[in-house]
Amino acid sequence: MKGKTIAELKVGDSAFVEKTIAEGDVYLYAGITGDLNPAHVNKVEAENGIFKRQVAHGMLTAGLISAVLGMYLPGPGTIYLGQNLKFTAPVYFGDTIRATATVTELREEKNICILSTICTNQDGKTVIEGAATVKPPKE
Length: 139
Hints:
alpha+beta; Thiol Ester Dehydrase, Chain A; five-stranded antiparallel sheet; 4 helices; 24% helix
Protein backbone atom coordinates (compact mmCIF):
# COMPACT_ATOMS: atom_id res chain seq x y z
CA MET A 1 0.00 0.00 0.00
CA LYS A 2 1.49 3.31 -1.09
CA GLY A 3 0.19 6.86 -1.00
CA LYS A 4 0.20 9.42 -3.78
CA THR A 5 3.52 10.84 -4.93
CA ILE A 6 4.03 14.57 -5.46
CA ALA A 7 3.47 14.02 -9.20
CA GLU A 8 0.07 12.42 -8.48
CA LEU A 9 -1.15 15.24 -6.24
CA LYS A 10 -2.83 18.46 -7.31
CA VAL A 11 -3.95 21.59 -5.50
CA GLY A 12 -7.53 21.07 -4.35
CA ASP A 13 -7.22 17.32 -3.68
CA SER A 14 -9.05 16.54 -0.46
CA ALA A 15 -9.74 13.61 1.88
CA PHE A 16 -11.32 13.09 5.28
CA VAL A 17 -11.87 10.64 8.11
CA GLU A 18 -14.71 10.63 10.63
CA LYS A 19 -14.82 9.27 14.14
CA THR A 20 -17.22 9.52 17.04
CA ILE A 21 -15.21 10.34 20.15
CA ALA A 22 -16.21 7.92 22.89
CA GLU A 23 -15.54 8.24 26.61
CA GLY A 24 -13.22 5.23 26.36
CA ASP A 25 -11.13 6.98 23.67
CA VAL A 26 -10.50 9.86 26.07
CA TYR A 27 -9.50 7.57 28.94
CA LEU A 28 -7.21 5.51 26.70
CA TYR A 29 -5.55 8.68 25.39
CA ALA A 30 -5.14 9.98 28.96
CA GLY A 31 -3.51 6.71 29.99
CA ILE A 32 -1.16 6.63 27.01
CA THR A 33 -0.04 10.26 27.32
CA GLY A 34 -0.30 10.78 31.07
CA ASP A 35 -2.52 13.84 30.51
CA LEU A 36 -4.99 13.33 33.35
CA ASN A 37 -6.33 16.88 33.34
CA PRO A 38 -9.65 16.83 35.25
CA ALA A 39 -11.35 18.58 32.31
CA HIS A 40 -10.98 15.26 30.50
CA VAL A 41 -11.13 12.52 33.13
CA ASN A 42 -13.07 13.82 36.14
CA LYS A 43 -16.80 14.33 35.62
CA VAL A 44 -17.38 16.30 38.84
CA GLU A 45 -14.40 18.61 38.30
CA ALA A 46 -15.30 19.10 34.63
CA GLU A 47 -18.87 20.09 35.54
CA ASN A 48 -17.40 22.95 37.59
CA GLY A 49 -15.02 23.98 34.81
CA ILE A 50 -15.28 26.29 31.83
CA PHE A 51 -17.08 23.78 29.55
CA LYS A 52 -19.49 22.46 32.25
CA ARG A 53 -18.83 18.86 31.18
CA GLN A 54 -15.95 16.61 30.17
CA VAL A 55 -14.15 17.36 26.92
CA ALA A 56 -11.82 15.33 24.73
CA HIS A 57 -8.13 16.22 24.61
CA GLY A 58 -7.41 18.64 21.78
CA MET A 59 -4.49 16.52 20.63
CA LEU A 60 -6.67 13.40 20.54
CA THR A 61 -8.92 15.20 18.09
CA ALA A 62 -5.92 16.56 16.16
CA GLY A 63 -4.69 12.98 15.81
CA LEU A 64 -7.49 12.41 13.31
CA ILE A 65 -5.62 14.76 10.95
CA SER A 66 -2.66 12.39 11.13
CA ALA A 67 -4.98 9.56 10.10
CA VAL A 68 -6.08 11.47 6.99
CA LEU A 69 -2.49 12.27 6.00
CA GLY A 70 -1.05 8.85 6.74
CA MET A 71 -3.84 6.75 5.27
CA TYR A 72 -5.50 8.77 2.49
CA LEU A 73 -3.85 12.02 1.38
CA PRO A 74 -1.09 11.66 0.48
CA GLY A 75 -1.39 8.28 2.25
CA PRO A 76 0.94 5.47 3.32
CA GLY A 77 4.61 6.42 3.18
CA THR A 78 3.92 10.09 3.97
CA ILE A 79 6.31 11.78 6.40
CA TYR A 80 4.75 14.41 8.69
CA LEU A 81 7.06 17.45 8.89
CA GLY A 82 4.93 19.97 10.74
CA GLN A 83 1.49 21.09 11.79
CA ASN A 84 0.00 24.29 13.14
CA LEU A 85 -3.27 24.08 14.99
CA LYS A 86 -5.86 26.47 16.34
CA PHE A 87 -8.39 24.94 18.72
CA THR A 88 -11.65 26.82 18.16
CA ALA A 89 -14.29 24.83 20.07
CA PRO A 90 -14.46 21.95 22.56
CA VAL A 91 -15.08 18.34 21.56
CA TYR A 92 -17.45 16.49 23.89
CA PHE A 93 -17.90 12.78 24.44
CA GLY A 94 -20.17 11.51 21.67
CA ASP A 95 -19.24 14.18 19.13
CA THR A 96 -18.56 12.92 15.62
CA ILE A 97 -15.51 14.65 14.21
CA ARG A 98 -14.64 14.95 10.53
CA ALA A 99 -10.96 15.71 9.90
CA THR A 100 -10.36 17.04 6.39
CA ALA A 101 -7.08 17.78 4.63
CA THR A 102 -6.90 19.71 1.36
CA VAL A 103 -3.79 20.26 -0.77
CA THR A 104 -3.05 23.99 -0.97
CA GLU A 105 0.55 24.02 -2.24
CA LEU A 106 3.01 21.67 -3.90
CA ARG A 107 6.78 22.25 -3.79
CA GLU A 108 7.83 19.61 -6.28
CA GLU A 109 11.56 20.45 -6.18
CA LYS A 110 11.65 19.60 -2.45
CA ASN A 111 8.93 16.91 -2.48
CA ILE A 112 6.84 18.92 -0.01
CA CYS A 113 3.07 19.25 0.15
CA ILE A 114 1.17 21.82 2.23
CA LEU A 115 -2.41 21.00 3.21
CA SER A 116 -5.06 23.00 4.99
CA THR A 117 -6.48 20.95 7.85
CA ILE A 118 -9.83 21.35 9.55
CA CYS A 119 -11.84 19.34 12.04
CA THR A 120 -15.58 19.87 12.32
CA ASN A 121 -18.21 18.31 14.56
CA GLN A 122 -21.53 16.72 13.60
CA ASP A 123 -23.12 20.18 13.49
CA GLY A 124 -20.53 21.49 11.03
CA LYS A 125 -18.86 23.65 13.70
CA THR A 126 -15.10 24.01 13.30
CA VAL A 127 -13.23 22.65 16.33
CA ILE A 128 -9.66 22.76 14.91
CA GLU A 129 -8.11 24.55 11.96
CA GLY A 130 -4.56 24.69 10.72
CA ALA A 131 -2.07 23.56 8.09
CA ALA A 132 0.16 20.53 7.70
CA THR A 133 3.51 20.15 5.93
CA VAL A 134 4.33 16.67 4.66
CA LYS A 135 6.67 14.76 2.37
CA PRO A 136 4.65 12.45 0.14
CA PRO A 137 6.08 9.02 -0.62
CA LYS A 138 8.70 8.86 -3.37
CA GLU A 139 7.99 6.97 -6.56
